[in-house]
Amino acid sequence: MTDANLTEEIANLCARARRASRKLAPRDRATKDRALHAMAAGLRARRGEILEQNALDLEAARQRGTKGALLDRLALDPARLESIAVGVEEIAELPDPVGGVIEARTLASGIAMQRVRVPLGVVAMIYEARPNVTVEASALCLKAGNAVVLRGGSEAFYSNRVLAKVISEALERSDLPPDLAAVIPFTDREAVRALVQQSESLDLVIPRGGEALIRFVTEHARVPVVQHYKGVCHLYLDLGCDVDMAVNLAVNGKLSRPGVCNALECLLVDEADAARILPKVAAALLAGGCELRGCERTRALVPEAREAALSDWGYEFLDRVLAVRVVRGLEGALDHIARYGSGHTEAICTTDSSRARRFQHEVDAACVAVNASTRFHDGGQLGLGAEIGIATSRLHWRGPMGLEALTTMKWILNGSGQTR
Amino acid sequence: MTDANLTEEIANLCARARRASRKLAPRDRATKDRALHAMAAGLRARRGEILEQNALDLEAARQRGTKGALLDRLALDPARLESIAVGVEEIAELPDPVGGVIEARTLASGIAMQRVRVPLGVVAMIYEARPNVTVEASALCLKAGNAVVLRGGSEAFYSNRVLAKVISEALERSDLPPDLAAVIPFTDREAVRALVQQSESLDLVIPRGGEALIRFVTEHARVPVVQHYKGVCHLYLDLGCDVDMAVNLAVNGKLSRPGVCNALECLLVDEADAARILPKVAAALLAGGCELRGCERTRALVPEAREAALSDWGYEFLDRVLAVRVVRGLEGALDHIARYGSGHTEAICTTDSSRARRFQHEVDAACVAVNASTRFHDGGQLGLGAEIGIATSRLHWRGPMGLEALTTMKWILNGSGQTR
C-alpha cells in the first residue's frame, strides 16, 4: 500500500468514527451499558477463537526471539480473558460521566447557567503489545460517549483483529454503529503518523508505550496529545520518621511490582538521621533481592550498596534496582526531586506535619503522598474504577485518567428572553 | 539575526520563564495580589509614556494605510488605559484558584485524598494588534500562579515594549522575578514557530487572532494549544415562539456588536411558522441597518432580503450582515447547525420545553442558549470575572477561559503508612 492510500484509508476510518460518535453522544446510559454487557458476553462466547488468534501472535513473537515480560504482556489465557470481561462489566456499573453537572448558578441577568459534562468526541489510542488495552480503552471510551480509534502494535495483530470483531459485534447487537470502535490494521510508523494528523476527526490522542513512541507521536501530532511518560518516583525519609513505616513504604514501593510506573526508583534520606534510618531500610530491600546504588554517604552506612553513577539519578530502572542518596534535609530532597523527578509520584515518610505540608505544597508532581506508598497512585485505588493511563502532562488532566478525563464540557443557558 | 540565534534567544527567555514560574507557584495570594496592584499603579504612573509609545505605533499604522476598526483596536487613550488598570485591580479581587479543592475523599485504605488546583506553569500568548491583551494576559496568568510569555503583533511593538516594562517593574517591586512576564521582541512568523516548539519550557500556547495565525500555530506547535477559532452563531426561531422575544434576541445578537465572536451570523426559522415570525424579525433587523441574505422561502416573505449564496451558510460576517434560512422545524435546524456551526454559541427561541431540551442536548457547541442572547457567552457575563478568550477546542477547556482554566491539578494523599 502506498503512503497516499494508507493516509486516505486512515482518514476515512477516522471520519466514520467521527460520524458514529455524533450518533452515540445523545444516547442514554442504558444503551451504552447494554453494549458493554454484550462486549463482556462476546469475550466469553468467543473465548476459543480469541485464544487461538492470541496463540498465533505468541508463536510469531517466540520466533522473533521475544521472551520474559514482553511475551507475558502479550499472552492471554482463560483466566486473563475472564478478568478482562469482568473489567468491562465493572465499567458498565460505573456512573455515567455524561450529563454530570460541574457547576450550576443563576446569573445576575436571571439566566440559569449549568456547566455539564459531554463526550470528548473521538479518542485515538496508540499502544504496544498488551491486547487487553484494546478492550479496556474501547469500553472506557464507549461509556464516556466517545468513539475510539485503536492502533495496537504488530506483536498483537491477530489478537487485536479478533477482539475488534467481538467489539463491533457487541455494538451492532446493541443497535450502535460498529464504527464507534475502529482498529487500524496497519502497524507501521507511517500509520501512526497519518493517524495523529487527522485533526478534523480526532479530539485526543493517547500514546501508551515507550518514550520513543510517545515522542514520535508528540512530534507529528496535529491533534491534542495527553502523554503518559515515565515515572521516576522518589521516597524521602525525613528526620525522625518511623523506621518501620519507612521500611514498609520502601519495600512496597520498590519490590511489589518493580516494572510499573508507580514503582520507586530512588530513596532520599535526611543526612541528620540517616545513620538511624538507612541501615534498616537497606537491609529489608537487600533481603528482598533489591540492588542498591548509593552515593558516598549511603555506602558508608550500607557497604552492600554499589556506587551510584550520575546517570542513576532520575533513571527509571523498572527493575529490582534502587538509587539511594543522603541529602541535606527537606531542602535537599526538594532540590533533588525538582531536578530529577518526572512529575509522576513523589512521597515523604515523616512525623513532622509542617514538613509534610511543605513537601505536598512545593513538589510539582501529578501525585504527592505523605506516609503512603506510591502504589496508591492508581485509578482503581483512587476510586476511579478504571483508568486509561496515568497522565504526566499537565493540560486537560493529570494523574489517573478515568471516565471524567474522557469528557469535555458544555455551557447551557436557560433564560426568559434576556439580552444585553 | 539568524534563525539559529533567534531560536536560542527565545529558548533562553522561555527557560527563564520556567524557572520564574517555579518560584511563583508556592507563593501566597497576598504576594500575587500585591503585584497586580503594583501593575495597576504603574499603568497610571506611566500614563504619559505609554500614550507616547502608543502614538508611535498608531503613526506607523497610519503610514501603512491602516484604518477603521484595526486602527481603533490598536489605540490607547487615558480612558482606555484607566479601564485596563481597573481590570487588573478586578483580577486582584477575584478568588485565588490555586489550592482550590476539586474533590476530597477518604479512600478505602483510609488515606485522605484531595485533588487540588495548582498552576499550569508557563503559558504563551500569541496575539495581534490589541495592546490591552499584554496587560490582561499577564494579570490573569500571574493570578493563577503562572509565568507568561507574550508575543504581540508588530503593529503594537512600541506599546507592548513599554507595557512590558511597567509589568516587570511591578513584579520587581513586589519581590517577584521579572522573568514571570516576558515579551518577545521579535514579531515575525519565524519567532512564532520557534516559540511554539519550546516543549521543555511551555505548558500551553494560546493563539488569539485570525484563522491563519491559529492554523500556523497548530501546525507547528510541539506544545499543547487551546484554540479560539471563529464564532458562526445561529439563532433558531421555533414554531410558536414569542415574536417580541425573537425580535429582541435577533437584534441584540446581531447588531449590538457585529464584529465579535458571539455575534449571530445566521437566523433559522421553522417553515411551519415563518410567515408569522419572520416578517417582524426581518423588519427590526432591516431598520437597524442590517443586510439580510436569505434562502428562497425567506425572500418570499422578506422581499428586501438579497439572495443568499451557498457560501453564506457557515460564514462569519463580523459585520451588519445576517444569513436567514427557513428550515424544516427543529430537525432542520439541528442538521443545519451540525453542518455549518463552528461549535461556539447556538441559541433557540421557543416556548416548547421538550424541543428546548432536545436542542440543548443535541447541539454540540461550547455554549447553548435557550431564550437568551448569544451575547451571554462571555467570561464576565458567566461570572468568571475576566477571561483570556473563548476556547472552541474541546480538550482541557471549552468556552470562556478564566482563572480556573489556567490551572491544572495535583492529587494529594495523606496516610498513616499504608501499603498495598
Characteristics:
homodimer, 2 domains, 16 strands, four-stranded parallel beta sheet, Aldehyde Dehydrogenase, Chain A, domain 1, alpha/beta, 420 residues, 14 helices
Write a concise synopsis of the structure shown.
With 420 residues, chain A is an alpha/beta fold. Chain A has helices at 3-24, 29-45, 47-63, 68-74, 78-93, 132-143, 157-173, 189-195, 211-220, 243-255, 274-287, 296-301, 329-340, 353-362, and strands at residues 101-106, 112-119, 122-127, 147-151, 181-183, 204-208, 233-237, 264-270, 291-294, 306-307, 321-327, 345-349, 367-372, 390-391, 399-400, 407-418. At the A-B interface, strand 2, helix 10, helix 14, strand 13 and strand 15 of A face strand 2, helix 10, helix 14, strand 13 and strand 15 of B.
Give your account of this protein's structure:
The structure is a homodimer of 420-residue chains. Chain A has 420 residues and is α/β, with parallel strands linked by helices. Chain A has 2 domains: 3-98 and 121-226, 3-Layer(aba) Sandwich (Aldehyde Dehydrogenase, Chain A, domain 1); 233-376, Aldehyde Dehydrogenase, Chain A, domain 2 (3-Layer(aba) Sandwich). In chain A, 43% of the residues lie in helices and 20% in strands. In chain A, the strands form 4 sheets. In chain A, strands 10-9-11-8-7-12-13 form a 7-stranded parallel β-sheet. In chain A, strands 5-4-3-6 form a 4-stranded parallel β-sheet, with helices on both faces. In chain A, strands 1-2-16 form a 3-stranded antiparallel β-sheet, with no helix packed on it. In chain A, β4 (147-151), α7 and β5 form a beta-alpha-beta unit. In chain A, α3 runs antiparallel to α7. Chains A and B meet through β2, α10, α14, β13 and β15 of A and β2, α10, α14, β13 and β15 of B. β13 of chain A pairs parallel with β16 (407-418) of chain B, so a sheet runs across the interface. Chains A, B: Pfam families: Aldedh. Chains A, B: It catalyses: L-glutamate 5-semialdehyde + phosphate + NADP(+) = L-glutamyl 5-phosphate + NADPH + H(+). Chains A, B: Keywords: Amino-acid biosynthesis, Cytoplasm, NADP, Oxidoreductase, Proline biosynthesis.
